[in-house]
Backbone:
C-alpha cells in the first residue's frame, strides 16, 4: 500500500496537485476529518524540505468524539473473552512483522533515528504485541484457601474503561504499543494521542490495528496538540485511566489535572542516566557501551547515557577512546547506509541542546563537538555534533538536567563509594550501568543504584519487553510498562468470596475464640 493510497489519505488530498498526502483521525472504525478541517505538517528532521504529510489539527471536540466512540465500544470488547482479544493482538503482531521494513523506513524519515534503530523500535512493538497476546490466556488472579469452611476465595482482574494514551516522538511505534497492547488485552478501549512530531508513524500503526481486526471504537486515534487534544482526554470524566510518556514537566501537569478526578495515571518521564566505569573495567567494552547509549538515537532516548562517572586512574584512557571513536561517527539521514547519528527531532531541540552546551562551557571542559552540524546537506536538517565535556561535577547543571541530545558529561570520582553517590545524586532514576570485572562490586551496584533498570557491563539502553520498564524518583509515579506487570495500570482488582456453607459465616469472628 503506498502512502498516498493509504486509507488515511483523504480523497481531497489524493485529488490535489500536491504530492503531500493528508491524513485523518481514526474514530469509531472510520478515518474522519477533524471538526475544524485545519491541519498541521509533519516534516523530515533530516531534511526539512521533505514534508511527510498533513495531519488533522484535532480539537477538544475531536477528542470528545473519540472518547464517546471508545465508551460505546467498551461493553462488547470487555465481554470478549481475553484469549480472543489476544488473538487479534497476534494478528496485529504478525502484520507488523510483515510490514517491519516499511514501518522502520517511515520512522527514520519522520523521526530521524537510523534505520537499524528504527527496526529495533518496530521490533519492540512486535514483541510487546506477542507478549500481551499471550497475556490474554494468563491474566492471573489468585485463588486462595478461605479461612472459613465451605467458602471459596479468589481475585480477578477487570478492565477500567477508556484509556487515554499520550505518547512522545522518540519511540513512535514501541511506546504506543507498550501502552495500547496491555490496555486492550485486558479489555479496555483506547483513545491515542501521539506526539505532533510523529503523527505519520501513529497513523501507520493504527492502520495495521484496524487491519488486524480490532473492532470499531476499540482503538481511536486523534492527532493534534497536547493543549487541545491532550487536555481534553486528561480532563474527560469518561477516561478513567491515563498512560503518559514524555517530559517530567508535562507529566506533572497531567498528574495534577487528572488528580482532580482521582484518575489512575501512569507516568514515564525523564532521565539522567549514568554509566559508572571502575578502574578494573574493560575499557574497550565500556567505550562501546557508552557510545551506543550516549549517541544512539542522537541522545534522544529516555534511557540515554548522559553522564559517565569514572574512577580517576582510568579517566584519561577512557576519554581518549571516547573522543577517538565519537569523532569517527557519521551524521546524516537515518535512511542512508553508513550513517551513525541522525538529526535531532526539531529546531527547538537544536536550540535547547546548544543552550546546554553554553552552560557546559562554563561548568566543564569541552573535549569535542559543541555546535550544530551544518556542512553540505546537513544544513537542511536538525543536526548536532556529538559533544563530550570532561571535568564535570556531579551537581553541575549539565550533570543534573535532561538535555535529550548528543551531549555526554564525564565526571571523575575517587572510588566506588563516590561513584555510587554521584550516580544517585539526581532527581531521576530510570537506567544505570556499571563496568567492572569484580563480581562483588557488580552486586553492590545492583543493590545500591537508585534506578528502575540496572545494567552490568552494558550501556544504559536495551530493555527487553518481558521485564518491567520504568524509573524511580521523578522518572515516574511507580507504575511500570512492559513485563506482565504492565497490565496493573489497566486493571482493577476484584476479590470474590463464594460461601457454599448455607449459613452466615463471619470472617475474623466465627472462626476465632470469643
Ligand atoms: P512532551 O513534550 O512532554 O510530550 C509528550 C506528549 O505529551 C506529546 O504527545 C505531547 O503532545 C503531549 N502533551 C504536551 N502537552 C500536553 C498537555 N498539556 N496535556 C496532555 N498532553 C500533552 O515530551 P517529548 O518531548 O515528546 O518527549 C521527550 C521526553 O519523554 C523526555 O523527557 C524523555 O525522557 C521522555 N521519555 C520517557 C520515557 C520513559 O519511559 N521514562 C520514554 C521515552 C521518552 P505534542 O507533541 O502535541 O506537544
Residues:
Amino acid at each position: 500500500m503506498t502512502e498516498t493510497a493509504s486509507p488515511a489519505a483523504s480523497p481531497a488530498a489524493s485529488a490535489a496537485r500536491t504530492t503531500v498526502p493528508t491524513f485523518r483521525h481514526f474514530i469509531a472504525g472510520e478515518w474522519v476529518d477533524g471538526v475544524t478541517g485545519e491541519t498541521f505538517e509533519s516534516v523530515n528532521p533530516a531534511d526539512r524540505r521533505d514534508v511527510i504529510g498533513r495531519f488533522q489539527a484535532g480539537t477538544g471536540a475531536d477528542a470528545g468524539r473519540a472518547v464517546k466512540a471508545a465508551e460505546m465500544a467498551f461493553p462488547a470488547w470487555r465481554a470478549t473473552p481475553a484469549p480472543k482479544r489476544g488473538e487479534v493482538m497476534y494478528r496485529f503482531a504478525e502484520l507488523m512483522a510483515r510490514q517491519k521494513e516499511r514501518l522502520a523506513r517511515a520512522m527514520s524519515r519522520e523521526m530521524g533515528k537510523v534505520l537499524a534503530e528504527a527496526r529495533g523500535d518496530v521490533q519492540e512493538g512486535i514483541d510487546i504485541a506477542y507478549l500481551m497476546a499471550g497475556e490474554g490466556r494468563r491474566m492471573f488472579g489468585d485463588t486462595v484457601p478461605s479461612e472459613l469452611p465451605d467458602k471459596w476465595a479468589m481475585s480477578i482482574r477487570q478492565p477500567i474503561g477508556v484509556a487515554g494514551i499520550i505518547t512522545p516522538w522518540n519511540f513512535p511505534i514501541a511506546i504506543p504499543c507498550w501502552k495500547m497492547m496491555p490496555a486492550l488485552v485486558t479489555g479496555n478501549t483506547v483513545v491515542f494521542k501521539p506526539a505532533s512530531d510523529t503523527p505519520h508513524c501513529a497513523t501507520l500503526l493504527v492502520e495495521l490495528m484496524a487491519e488486524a481486526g480490532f473492532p470499531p471504537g476499540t482503538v481511536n486515534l486523534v492527532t493534534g496538540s497536547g493543549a487541545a487534544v491532550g487536555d481534553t482526554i486528561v480532563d474527560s470524566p469518561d477516561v478513567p485511566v491515563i498512560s503518559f510518556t514524555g517530559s517530567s514537566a508535562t507529566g506533572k501537569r497531567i498528574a495534577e489535572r487528572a488528580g482532580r478526578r482521582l484518575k489512575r495515571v501512569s507516568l514515564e518521564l525523564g532521565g539522567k542516566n549514568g554509566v559508572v566505569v571502575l578502574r578494573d573495567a574493560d575499557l574497550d567494552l565500556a567505550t562501546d557501551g557508552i557510545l551506543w547509549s550516549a549517541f544512539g538515537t542522537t541522545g534522544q532516548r529516555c534511557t540515554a547515557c548522559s553522564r559517565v562517572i569514572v574512577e580517576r586512574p582510568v579517566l584519561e584512557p577512557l576519554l581518549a577512546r571516547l573522543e577517538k571513536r565519537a569523532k569517527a561517527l557519521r551524521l546524516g539521514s537515518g535512511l542512508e547506509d553508513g550513517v551513525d547519528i541522525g538529526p535531532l527531532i526539531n529546531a527547538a531541540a537544536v536550540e535547547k541542546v546548544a543552550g546546554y552546551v553554553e552552560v557546559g562551557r562554563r561548568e566543564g571542559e569541552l573535549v569535542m563537538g559543541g555546535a550544530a552540524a551544518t556542512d553540505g546537506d546537513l544544513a537542511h536538517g536538525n543536526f548536532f555534533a556529538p559533544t563530550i565535556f570532561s571535568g564535570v561535577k556531579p551537581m553541575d547543571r549539565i550533570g543534573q538536567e535532561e538535555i535529550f541530545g548528543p551531549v555526554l558529561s564525564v565526571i571523575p570520582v575517587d572510588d566506588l563509594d563516590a561513584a555510587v553517590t554521584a550516580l544517585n545524586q539526581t532527581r531521576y532514576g530510570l537506567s544505570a550501568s556499571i563496568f567492572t570485572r569484580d563480581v562483588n562490586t557488580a552486586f553492590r551496584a545492583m543493590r545500591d543504584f537508585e534506578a528502575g533498570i540496572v545494567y552490568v557491563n552494558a550501556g544504559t539502553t536495551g530493555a527487553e519487553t518481558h521485564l518491567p520498564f520504568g524509573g524511580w524518583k521523578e522518572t515516574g509515579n511507580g507504575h511500570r510498562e512492559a513485563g506482565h506487570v504492565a497490565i496493573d495500570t489497566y486493571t482493577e482488582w476484584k476479590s470474590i468470596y463464594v460461601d457454599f456453607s448455607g449459613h452466615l459465616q463471619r470472617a475474623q469472628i466465627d472462626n476465632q475464640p470469643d
Remarks:
- Residues 166-171, 193, 195-197, 225-227, 230-231, 234, 245-247, 250, 253-254, 268-271, 302, 402, 404, 430, 471, 475 surround NAP (CB under 6 Å).
